[in-house]
Amino acid sequence: VVRLQRVNVVFHRTSSARELTQELRIRSTGERRFAWQVGATVFWSREASTLAFGAQRGALAGSELLSSPVLSDLQRVGPPAALNVALVDNPAARQILFNDSTEARRTIALFATADYRLTQALRLRAELRATWERLTLDSRTANFLPSFGTSLGAQHFHDITPRFSLDWRLNADLLVFASYAKGTRSGGINAIPNLRADEQTYAPESNWTAEIGAKYVGGGLVRSAQLTAYDIDWRDTQIRAVSATPGFPSLIFSNTSGIRTRGVEAAAQIVPAGWLALDLAWSYTDPRFKAGSEDPGFAGSCGLSVVNSVSSFCTIRPSTISPGQLVPDISGNLVSRVARTSWSAALTLAPPLAHFRSMRLHVDVTHQGNEYDQNIDGLYFGARTLLGARLSIPLGHFVAELWGTNLTDARYVRDAATRQPGFYATVPRPTDLILADRRRVGLTLRFPG
């Protein structure tokens, strides 16, 4: 017998954190061609978090359970659903513990900087930071079951991150700058027991960033302008993915080959008159996965399963991280949740009227391109061009503001939320499309105080 039943699910999350930081700096004094600074930082943090939820039992008999839907035939009874572990009579009053863990992190860092002025207009700067980090995780409960506690022991990370930069002031209004720097993020532990050894922990990631640009600030028609170009070489990139361990369809952190990002940003302010200003901004970025990158978490989205090893949509190949497993090859793909192009233009008018000297009209147009929901470059969303305006009028001791957003009533998807994978072990995870607000207008009265 198949019966459809609406299930009310209530989540309850708690978290607490303690942090302690101590820093020591020693630096040179006085106006000199050469300046330096050395120091040390010690940082301790401890964060405890729990997540619990309850699913309403409703009309289920004592011998009945919720089942996962069979999309090809909704009249069939599927395998037991994960929600059965959290069945309660009143989820608002009682939830079942899902995850319970405490993470402790200790960081010790030594750093030094040096500034040297070749001339009054040209400055060189070098920075160096060495970091030692110790991470421990006490995972008491995971996926409703007892977890591994502290049996994995402490994880240790060490890195050295230099930075070199140049500032060249061509004149009082124009500055040219360039920099080359390394950044890192430490690895960690996935708080899920019985994962494969290659998934239980994940490695640190790092990137080298090269940047060059110019800044202008003046008093004429063009009040300010900025142009920046950058290149980011990202290695061992940490990504959020579904576990490939059999029987564990949970989200974990893992590493992929890397990402190469090239981009340009530009901005300017133009002021033809004291009562009129135009602000412009534009950016383009092209983050793509390096050759050899893979994302096993989206194998299901490509149609891979225990009975199917081909895909009409994705490029499939054997994994280089987990031999014997077929994975989507995302080499050359765009990184998800990134819009390649965006721009904005804003016009501000404050006409010198006798009776409304503080009246101001602000009109802005913004544009953002599409974003991919997944690294396999499938579903995309979010492209929009929006018009907004705000008119401020002083009325004695008050200010009236007539405002509007999305005045052209553009319809677009603001976000795409893929549901937690643990509840959808045998079927594709649903994706909820969250629509943005339509046209909105309003009137605000405020007292400037």
Kindly describe this structure.
The chain has 449 residues and is an all-beta fold. It is built from one helix and 25 strands. The chain has a 17-stranded mixed sheet that branches. A two-stranded antiparallel ribbon has the order 9-10. The longest helix is centred in the middle third of the chain and has 4 residues, at 197-200. The mean pLDDT is 90.
Radius of gyration (CA) equals 28 Å
Give the SSE order as H and E letters.
EEEEEEEEEHEEEEEEEEEEEEEEEE
- The fraction of residues assigned to DSSP E strands is over 45%
- Poorly predicted runs of 5 or more residues: none
Percent range of helical residues: under 10%
**Global morphology:** globular
Number of strands: 25
Structural class: mainly beta
Average the pLDDT over all residues and give the rounded result: 90
Give the number of helices.
Answer: 1
Termini separation: 68 Å
Main sheet overview? 17 strands, mixed
Question: How would the blueprint of this fold be written?
Answer:
Blueprint (H helix, E strand, L loop, with lengths): L8 E19 L6 E23 L30 E2 L7 E22 L4 E21 L2 E5 L5 E15 L4 E12 L2 E2 L7 H4 E2 L2 E13 L4 E21 L8 E23 L2 E14 L26 E3 L7 E3 L12 E9 L10 E9 L2 E2 L7 E2 L2 E12 L2 E8 L7 E6 L12 E5 L4 E7 L3
Parallel strand pairs: 2-3
Antiparallel strand pairs: 1-2, 2-4, 4-5, 5-6, 5-7, 7-8, 8-11, 9-10, 11-12, 12-13, 13-14, 14-17, 15-16, 17-18, 18-21, 19-20, 21-22, 22-25, 23-24
Features:
single chain; 17-stranded mixed β-sheet; mainly beta; 25 strands; 449 residues; 58% strand
